[in-house]
Design brief:
The chain is an all-beta fold. It is built from two helices and 36 strands. The N and C termini lie close together (about 10 Å).
Length: about 425
């Protein structure tokens, strides 16, 4: 069973955190003029010009020219609008949370691009909807807390519960949907500290299989092809993680990224370059190789970002707390002939599994041929074990650590690197791991 670090443990370990992975300076996002001080929660678009942003206290922003100018649209609620989704330039839906006594969700719909919105409360009460997605003007899905998966075939006039395979986790909260086509798709979600879940349908939502695949919620997903898909998830204590399938969802591989914080949303600028909004830790995660490796990027002005969307490879926006709107700067993009940030420095990944008993894998990346050493420390900083691994070539490496003679608790593993090039650069990177016996 997992246990939490208490305040004393955090105080004792602050010195180690100074050696954690580097965050690269961020110049790819430019802050735009604030239209509001309300928190902005969600972005939707139908092309490179028509973009909508929803947020707290009935905020709905619209741009018809790719974000050069924004205007407010009037909605018939006063609640926070947590999600907006547009199918085309006319049809759109949004989810507003009513957190009064009998809390619930109000579903908004427009048929004229947001000029006018209709509203209807979703029943039963005590239901919070997190996500809504339409595949065409009639077929759509919603999910959230205390809902299961619901489908409409008449544009949202009626919603019907889909059949879900029986499991202890079948009705955990739904966070998002991704569909490869009308028949084949995934839902993802879960509970913090209990399980991350992927639901899969191959028959247009008539039935969904249930796959508990990680210890933390999966919040967003992406199809690479029909067989290969991956999701992003995690929590504030154990950090971000990915789940990956290469066989159409039958089997999944869980992997921690080694980055502190909880992901909120993910989108891709190109097939290979993807960005994850990390919310309150004020960072992005960036991948340049379709989710295989990730790098932390500091957010411009230390903003808190809740959603990120790319209209195409040239236009992208990120939104968040205090009305922040960031626009991607394509002039400083990191693509084909530019520096690969996550491959220019050594990387120490989070051990897997974590927590572990008694064996775990420690993976690391070397940009240069180097002399490598790994040390293990306890919470008081005492040097427990030293492993001199010799000379390693550039590339990915794995070290298998067996915790013989150690009691349950929090430990730290530190990677020492001395590069065998002309400059002889040295690096020290430290991460924590948890042993449970």
């Amino acid at each position: 069973m997992r246990f939490k670090l208490n305040i004393i443990c955090c105080f004792l370990t602050f010195a180690f955190l100074m050696f954690s992975n580097k965050s690269f300076p961020q110049q790819q996002w430019i802050r735009q003029s604030n239209m509001t001080t309300k928190a902005l929660r969600s972005i939707s678009y139908v092309d490179s010009n028509k973009i909508w942003i929803s947020g707290d206290t009935a905020t709905m922003l619209y741009s018809s020219n790719g974000g050069l100018n924004w205007m407010f649209q009037s909605v018939p609620v006063l609640n926070d609008i947590q999600k907006v989704f547009f199918l085309n330039e006319r049809l759109g839906w949004a989810l507003a949370w009513d957190l009064s006594v009998n809390y619930g969700t109000i579903i908004l719909k427009t048929t004229n691009g947001g000029v006018n919105w209709d509203s209807a409360r979703y029943y039963p009460d005590y239901t919070i909807l997190f996500t809504i997605k339409f595949l065409d003007s009639l077929t759509g899905y919603i999910g959230g807390f205390n809902t299961g998966i619901l489908k409409t075939t008449n544009g949202g006039l009626n919603w019907v519960n889909c059949q879900i395979d029986s499991s202890m986790v079948s009705y955990f909260p739904i966070r998002n949907f991704q569909f490869y086509n009308h028949n084949f798709g995934y839902a993802c979600g879960g509970y913090v500290d209990i399980a991350g879940i992927v639901w899969r349908t191959t028959n247009a939502g008539q039935r969904w299989g249930v796959y508990p695949i990680s210890p933390e919620p999966v919040v967003d997903m992406r199809f690479v092809d029909q067989n290969y898909a991956f999701g992003i998830g995690g929590d504030l204590e154990y950090g971000a993680s990915t789940v990956t399938t290469t066989d159409g969802g039958t089997n999944w591989v869980y992997k921690t990224i080694g980055s502190f914080g909880f992901p909120y949303a993910m989108d891709f600028r190109t097939d290979a370059e993807g960005w994850v909004a990390m919310g309150y830790i004020q960072k992005f995660l960036l991948t340049l190789d379709t989710g295989r490796n990730w790098t932390e990027i500091d957010v411009t002005d230390s903003a808190t970002i809740f959603d990120v969307k790319f209209m195409n490879s040239n236009i992208g926006y990120a939104v968040g707390d205090n009305g922040v709107i960031l626009k991607h700067n394509t002039l400083i993009g990191i693509g084909n002939n530019q520096i690969m940030l996550n491959r220019s420095s050594p990387v120490l990944y989070q051990n897997y599994p974590n927590p572990f008993n008694p064996v775990t894998s420690i993976n690391y990346y070397l940009p240069e041929r180097s002399v490598v050493k790994i040390k293990i420390y306890d919470m008081l900083g005492r040097d427990l074990k030293t492993y001199s691994l010799g000379i390693k070539n550039s590339g990915e490496h794995t070290f298998r650590f067996t915790a013989q003679g150690l009691n349950s608790g929090v430990y730290f593993y530190r990677l020492f690197i001395n590069e065998l090039n002309r400059t002889g650069n040295s690096s020290v990177i430290t991460k924590k791991m948890i042993l449970i016996k």
